[in-house]
Automatic annotation (TrEMBL):
Species: Pythium insidiosum (Pythiosis disease agent)
Residue numbers annotated as active site: D56
UniProt-listed Gene3D superfamilies: Pseudouridine synthase I, catalytic domain, C-terminal subdomain, Pseudouridine synthase I, catalytic domain, N-terminal subdomain
SUPFAM superfamilies (alphabetical): Pseudouridine synthase (SSF55120)
The protein's name in its UniProt record: Pseudouridine synthase I TruA alpha/beta domain-containing protein
């Protein structure tokens, strides 16, 4: 099911005791429509319930996908060509409030999971241009009439670009006290021989669920960290150990000016990534805002992203955040949200029916809901004075905490990080070159391409991971074996070669290799 909803008045999407959530509304509608047994109402895991993303309190979704094993009425018709079950859409919308809509329902392969098969999530964040100007009040005593707003906007956009790539976002999540306590409890259970308790739902992109509390600014007391935190932070609370859970890939992060957003100029942030930590996007926006308004120096901001130094990053209000879209993949790639360049490739699997979840008409209805309902609510919510005052308090606390950081120490940390990155690239290049010599006769791209090449390919060309990118990698690996690309070429040189040949031409070659057909001889020229 492809759905959209207004997050106002709900404590996020996921079921949570004693508070209203989107999934509670959905399960009531599904039960009323006769698509679920009453015995499964309390435990959605019995019907393999899954969602493509999890949103926090107050966050809206223009497009989110749910998957489950539902009961179909005997009169419900399944379109044999598309898998659509329009009767289910009509029945659910009749039970749901107007702020929650189902745009399509499709019968898909039983192995599909909205969470596990989701390879990319896309968000947007809107904030008034006036909010950027007002943010200077928290960190400067100067008259706002002297503020160069155009320069601030450019700093904001530049800071957003800094997030692209693979980084350790340990400073950009506000769930650490929960995480530390959770890990300590799990350790106690293991020591005691007890079984680890179920979380009551599937584990998706947000690692821990928002409890609806008000302290989402990160103002946790030292007592809450206590012994648990000492496992991950030094005794002074200065540095944090690297954890794999904090490493996230951001394919695209950019900003633009919308001159007329419900009658007022707004800034729009567009973010595409694999998965996000709790509050990560709001912290990313807050960090960029702090840099733009001189609430954080550019060096401290870069240290927050590129080093393990603990930096206080303010969190932007939830009301501007909208889940925009998702992309799906996997070995079978049996489902696509839209018909795209991966769809045609996925239909080559003759044993599995490939389904596209949104037609042009359904997509148009979804866009109307987003523009008429969600965007209007976003504009209205920003008019609340308390939102601005609360943000000023966050920004001021962040500014005060980071003012104690030693500039020379931060500069040295950044220099060390840059040297470490260069050394890492040198070792990787040496390893890859050795592998290329050993693997040059094979047909597998992994042995001849740099590590994380596919992710960096997606970042550079703003394309989702999937069959297409895998075919591109096969194609470029073939050119390396043919000698069209020097055996010692680094990642940047490979990208320059891709620019020369064209993504589509290399993908076509890779596809022929994948399907066992003979690829044409290549001379490195554009096809």
């Amino acid at each position: 099911m492809v759905a959209g909803y207004l997050g106002t008045g709900y404590h996020g999407v996921q079921l949570n005791k004693n508070v209203e959530t989107i999934e509670n509304e959905l399960r009531k509608a599904i039960l009323a429509a006769g698509a679920m047994r009453e015995s499964n109402f309390a435990d959605l895991s019995k019907i393999d319930w899954s969602r493509s993303s999890r949103t926090d309190k107050g966050v809206h979704a223009g497009c989110i996908v749910f998957s489950a094993k539902l009961l179909l009425d005997e009169h419900a018709t399944v379109d044999p060509a598309t898998g659509r079950v329009q009767a289910l859409v009509d029945a659910l919308n009749a039970e749901l409030p107007p702020t929650i809509r189902i745009f399509s329902a499709t019968r898909v392969n039983k192995r599909f999971s909205a969470r596990r098969n989701c390879v990319l999530r896309e968000y947007e964040y809107f904030l008034p241009l006036s909010f950027l100007e007002q943010s200077f009040l928290a960190t400067s005593t100067a008259d706002t009439s002297d503020v160069d707003l155009d320069a601030a906007v450019e700093r904001f956009f530049a800071a957003l670009r800094e997030y692209e790539g693979i980084h350790d976002f340990h400073n950009f999540t506000k769930a650490r006290s929960f995480f530390y306590r959770q890990r300590a409890q799990q350790k106690l259970r293991r020591v005691g021989g007890g079984a680890e308790a179920s979380t009551g739902g599937d584990d998706d992109d947000d690692d821990v669920e928002d409890d609806g509390g008000e302290r989402d600014d990160g103002s946790y007391t030292s007592a809450e960290y206590s012994d648990e935190a000492s496992q991950y932070e030094d005794g002074l609370g200065t540095f944090r150990k690297e954890l794999p859970r904090h490493r996230r890939a951001i394919y695209s992060c950019s900003g633009s000016l919308v001159r007329d957003f419900c009658g007022e100029p707004f800034l729009r942030v567009h973010i595409v990534g694999q998965a996000f930590l709790l509050h990560q996007i709001r912290c990313m926006v807050g960090g960029a805002l702090a840099v733009a308004t001189r609430g954080m120096s550019s060096d401290v901001f870069r240290a927050a992203i590129h080093t393990n130094r603990i930096v206080r990053v303010p969190i932007a209000p939830a009301e501007g955040l909208v889940l925009l879209s998702s992309s799906f993949g996997g070995k079978l790639h049996s489902v696509s949200l839209y018909e795209d360049f991966n769809t045609k490739l996925a239909t080559e699997h003759k044993d599995v029916s490939h389904r596209v979840l949104l037609s042009a008409e359904e997509d148009a209805a979804m866009q109307r809901f987003r523009e008429d309902v969600i965007y209007r609510e976003v504009s209205r919510a920003w008019k609340s004075v308390t939102k601005v005052d609360r943000w000023h308090a966050y920004l001021a606390r962040s500014f005060e905490a980071n003012a104690t950081l030693d500039a020379a120490e931060i500069a040295a940390l950044l220099a060390d990080a840059e040297r470490a990155q260069h050394e890492k690239k040198r070792r990787q290049r040496s390893f890859v070159q050795q592998n290329r010599s050993n693997e040059i006769v094979d047909n597998k791209p992994r042995g001849v391409l740099p590590r994380q090449f596919t992710t960096n390919l997606c970042v550079r060309y703003s394309i989702p991971p999937g069959i297409f990118t895998n075919d591109v990698c096969r194609g470029i690996a073939r050119h390396l074996r043919l000698g069209n690309v020097p055996i010692d070429a680094d990642e940047q040189q490979i990208f320059e070669y891709i620019d020369k040949c064209g993504l589509q031409a290399l993908a076509n070659e890779g596809r022929m290799l994948r399907t066992g057909r003979h690829a044409p001889s290549s001379s490195g020229q554009r096809a």
